[in-house]
Amino acid sequence: MLTSFRNRAQQHNFLVALIALAVLALAFLLGQRASATWLGLLVAGIGAVVLLAQPVLGLLAIVAAALLLPLEFGTGSEVALNPAALLIPAVTGVWLLDRMRRGRIHLVASPVNWPLALFLLAGLLSLLIGRATWSPFVPTKSNFLLVQLAQWSIFAFSALAFWLTANLAADERTLWRLTALFLLVGGGVAIARLLPGLDGLVGRVTTAAFIRAPFWVLLTALAGGQLLWNRQLSLAWRGFLGAVLLAALGYALVDQQEAASNWVGIGAALGMLVWLRFPRLRGLLLVLVVILALSGMLFPTIYDFAGGDAEWQESGGSRLVLIKRVIEVTLRNPITGLGPAAYRPYANMKPLPYQGAFWVAPQINSHNNYVDLFAHVGLLGLALFGWFVFEVARLGHRLHRRYRTGFAAAYVNGVLAAGVGSLVIMVLADWILPFVYNIGFLGFQASVLVWLFLGGLVALENLWRPEGQVLSE
Fold this sequence. Notes:
- By secondary structure, the protein is an all-alpha fold.
- Helix content is 71%, strand content 2%.
- The chain contains 18 helices and 4 strands.
- The strands form 2 sheets. It has a two-stranded antiparallel sheet.
- Helix 7 (172-192) packs across helix 9 (213-229).
- The longest helix is centred in the C-terminal third of the chain and has 34 residues, at 369-402.
- It is globular and about 65 Å long.
């Protein structure tokens, strides 16, 4: 044991010396060629060395970048990248290097892995078939293949974020730190935005994730889950999380009432939390919903709150026309779809009429994630995505029955609620697998957080311990 301890100490000292030498060498280079590019390379180099020593820190870095680094990098096309997107392959590379060093390159076992991997392969297959059968009458720009690869990258980076948490979260404490960081930063900003004079300042130092529905759905679900299941929370934490929920509700129901995705997603997440936490109330809730629906009060109330006829004329009806056009062009190949990001050139080929107006040069988005997936990867990819959702739900159900209280139970139920809210808002826009021409990588900063926390369910499945042994924080 003493020899093993000495070996670890020697390895640690060697790593410290290597870091020190690297910093000194880069500092010398910067002194010779000072520029923002070299400074960025210095930061990236130091970050890579730190991640090689502690790959799990990559999860925290992704959360911080998705929330607090409002930077964009051009690619020479209509697609711009951001630090959160770039960190996904970077952290994946570091994780693989660490596994190679340990001689263990494999994913943690889970039924979720197969449908997710096959979904990515289906995306590549759709891309190949779509380009091989491309209509010569549909023009594209010279960099269109790059755009298509960017769309597939959104699929791949989302899956990688899922797998990173599943494989790097080696214990509940790691998941707690990841959750605490997101709640403290995300919840703190949500509260600060409500304070007079701080909204503008906060907006300058945060990313677009804070104006995207997936962020608010995830924030509400995780905060609510911790309040309802984690009895070990201190009074200070409970007060903070209560304020976070109030801030989320205020943002969705008052400040951004016209953005239905926010309050619909938050409502779905809260409804799922109540459903999971109070099983004896399920029958009463169902009866209440049926009574309200049959009485004619439920749907008119929701319709009026969403903006009524005015909002329908402005947005709702036009979305149906857009969806119809996207489905129409995708029927050219409904099995594998047109390929990632390929439906827009096809859909833009002819003018789009709507209520007397004539959109001569349309720039079409379906504003519906399920329709988008059908167009990108066809019925095959849509079925594989459905299989993935089914396996995640089945996993969540097992964990819900296994963990009854404490942080793990709060995490499981919060993530399940976030998953339900995410599936709901996918009907309203391309929130969870963004369309590169619409919400794109800018919105990916919010959606990637959902994928990251979903991966924690797989981590918990592989960290199971006998009932009663829960994390104390």
